[in-house]
Amino acid sequence: MHGGSFVEKDGDRYFNTTIAFDREGAELARYRKIHLFDVTTPDGRSYRESDTFGAGREVVIYKAGDVTIGCSICYDLRFAELYRALAEAGADVMMVPAAFTLQTGKDHWEVLLRARAIETETYVVAAAQTGTYFEGNDERASWGHTMIVNPWGHILAQAGEGTGHASADIDLDYLKQVRARIPVANHRVL
Fold first, then answer.
1. Model pLDDT for residues 131-155, shown as the tens digit of each residue
2. I need a surface site. Which of 60, 103, 134, 183 has the fewest CB within 10 A?
């Protein structure tokens, strides 16, 4: 079970954290979001995640059976270097729990998920918050569109804007075929 992100308090600091558990409920991994969402969206709304949260510092992977899983959260998706580090550490699947804004999600969500899958030759599993919520008196909206993308960049499953789910098989033989056809990891020079 890979939990979506939640607020974790550690001493006097807060972190945007995701945790994975094995079948018996033991913790497999804990990842604290590295890239904090400090932006102004096209509609003029300001988001200042660093006003509340500290940034994580560690690249985190874990094993779930025969699959190695890389951890990320939401805004991390925009930083290819994190996904490259996860791939170099052996990740077969990238997890991306997220609450992309409606403004950025409609234009960037699918493109970024597919790009991360293609460039790292991994599966990308992205659980996405959907709907509206209030921050103070300000109503905000999340894009949704939970998605699973294969290492060739094809969308295997996708939920819409409303509540839903997506599921797909992770085919490790297919993953090996993609990596053998275009061995990107072996061709890197930088």
1. 999 988 999 999 999 999 999 999 9
2. 134
Q: Tell how many helices (H) and how many strands (E) occur in the chain.
A: 5, 13
Check if the beta carbon of residue 156 is closer than 8 Å to that of residue 174.
Answer: no
Angle, helix 80-88 to helix 110-120, in steps of 10 degrees: 30
Report how far residue 21's alpha carbon sits from residue 16's, in angstroms, rounded to the nearest whole number: 17
DSSP H helices in 32-94 = 80-88
Cα 83 to Cα 122: distance, rounded to the nearest angstrom: 10
For residue 39, what are its two tokens? Answer: 């932006």
Please list, in sequence order, all residues whose beta carbon lies within 8 angstroms of the beta carbon of residue 76, skipping any fewer than 6 positions away.
Answer: 33, 34, 35, 82, 96
Please say whether the dihedral angle defined by the alpha carbons of residues 55, 81, 67 and 155, taken in this order, is positive or negative.
positive
Structural fold of domain 6-187:
Nitrilase/N-carbamoyl-D-aminoacid amidohydrolase (3.60.110)
